[in-house]
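--- STAGE predict ---
source: upstream dedup step, 1 unique chain passed
mode: sequence only
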Amino acid sequence: MSRLILITLAMLLIATSGWAATLPPAVRGDRTVYLDVEPGTLEITVLKRDLNIYDREDLLHLTLFDPLSNEVFQHTMPDDGTVGRGRAEEYQRFDVNVDVEFGGVYRLLVHGSSDLVWGVETSAERLVVQGGLLLSDFDISGSIYFPPPNEEFAITIAALHDPGRQTVPLYDADGEKLHDFELTVTGEDHLLEFPAEERDGLWRLDMEAMSVRLSIDGVQYWTSEEDAWFDVSKSRWMLLPYRTTRYLQAGEAATVDLTLRNSTGDSDRFHVEATADPEVAVDVIEPEMPVALAADETATIRVRATLADPPAEETELHVLLRATAEDEPNAQATSGINVRVGESPVSEPLEMPITLRPFAHEAVQFGYDPDYVRNEVYFDEGNLPWIRHRTEDRDETTGVYSLDEDRRWTHHGFEDAIRRQWPDYVRPDRGAGFIGAKLAFDGQGGVYTTLRLIAGAERPAVLLFSPDEGESWEVHEVRGNVAEIEQFTGHNRLDGPPPVLTFERTGPHPARWASYHDLWLYLPQREGDTLVLGEPIRVAEAVIGSCQHSGGPSSTVTADGSTHIVWGEISGEPDGTGADERGVPTYAATYDHTTEELSEKILLGHGPPVNDVHNVPAITIDSQGILHVLIGAHGRPFHYVHSLRPNDAGEWTEAEPILTTGFTTDDGDEVGRQTYISLVCDADDTLHTAFRQWRNQDPYHDGELYAALSWQQRPRDGEWTEEATPLVIPPLPGYSIYYHKLTIDRLGDLWLSYSYLTSNQTYQGQFPHQYHHRAVIVSRDGGETWKLAESDDFFEGIDLHQ
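--- STAGE serialize ---
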């Protein structure tokens, strides 16, 4: 097996005759193109025509990945240089030759401007496209072949432009015409529905002008030539991860777990075989082959790689894993282990920012493979870390993990306690962190977390309480739809159970990201090993809601007998009129534990845009008792206020934006664009926030718009840093979200957990879950340096605290 796949890139004309498979240059939008490649020379030509409907630069990004998800090449086709509107007269073309030593499925990711069309010509005999069917070149005729679903489905088609008006016939796999779509009016949808029944083969739509908008329910894969078809879905997500990295010294071994998935639709028996470079010994140690799997069933494949005879110089060696199914020839997949000789960079500070690349996230770039569940991290009074269990599924959680003083991670399950109270309990609803995975502690062995359950027809919000460090649990239902507990943010002091806020939905609102809620405050008390919830206190009405999936802000902070609460409210009338365009009105109030009274609410400022639940606020307190609040925003700058007196929410500074840089508008103005707020205060009273930041016109992604995971700080008595610091750069431009949570330990060190998700389905669709890539980074010097967190980093924090 070669250590390198040799690549020859050439900007030259390759004769168009003899192409094995073609995709007409009428495709508009981002797609993934799958090529079934044999050993030899792979030839690819990409054709691009700018439509020039909009006055902007039209770039097309091409990235080819081999069967191990190694990047073979990356290329950007530039704008055609046309000034003014009107589609280009000629095609641009990019030609490439790739020397292929071992065959398999190559993936060409195509993404960029939507103001162009593109197509592919290749020497590969089979070519399949994943993604939508938007075709936009009326000079080209052609066909679309697709596998019809066995379930009920519908075809919706419309002429995209006037030249797309035509009759489009639909044929089944036997060539029998099923229907004629008469596209006589531009933009008018034509719908044809089909009942559930067994269907085989490929159906076909013929177009005289490939200028149509087409949607076929349940169809992800299609092609333009019948002979080019192969069923990519049979091997979808079959062997994951696609690629990972381990650092080894001579004689060292690493164990890697992979997930084998049966996507064939039927029961089958699978084989996984491993080969490697001569210096690496590799074994599939479990399970015994073949592995019998029912449809959609998974199995863990454990592989051990040993560096037996390292080369003289540090280099990268390779392990190839190949999975096949006995009964389905289209079910075949490969995965790779990169074995790098030397010390892992995970143990050292990172060169920031972490720059993700397609299929090359932290595990591939750094060999990151920690032995704990990667989720948001919280610290008890002894600085011992606690993490709520999760998998890649957004709903699943079964308990919490703690790291004890013997340096062992222990799982404390709470589902038995839930089932005792709700016998028809099914699972948590988005329990992995989407509506929060916070943990709080009372200093007496008490552990607290909240969930929303699916129990029959009910969706109760609950507070879980363990009086004995997770050994046993009580489950208490609270009113409302979502519950939040007060977590440690640096200096808040909880002598007992944490305050609990709940959001009870009371009605809809016409704005997309808004609905009406009542806000309730619980102040539970411990009576020995039992928790007494007490009656809730209504704090406010017309509250916009809770947003915990990213940022994880604290809505309360408690000190010296006072609990300070912040929230945002709906603005204007129930029909959406009369809203204050400054943004979501944000308020604060204080509950006095001694007098048992709630103060009047105080307006702090507004979070733009108006009536948007993304704009919830965050509160913390410093060592002097000064309250600090960030007012949230959605693609606008956060605003900052602080109290004028310690532990007193009666008077505040004027709200000021904290970021005015990072994004350049079409008018050339530079602005700050922030979303998903977080806020903690370290031991030196420096404030820290991590957030999604829209950026452009910088060195990443050719200056295009992208979303970074960024960070800002404000030293005590100082100002917020003028520019945000990107911590993570996404692998693709355009929309991204990180589901990040910024927390702080009892020493004031910063812990940031995150996962990456993009709306680009040509990439996101390569993974079965949106949380597939998750990491935790830590900074012990106030954000100056960061490193990927291993268990040793938690041990260091415990030792320092003691």
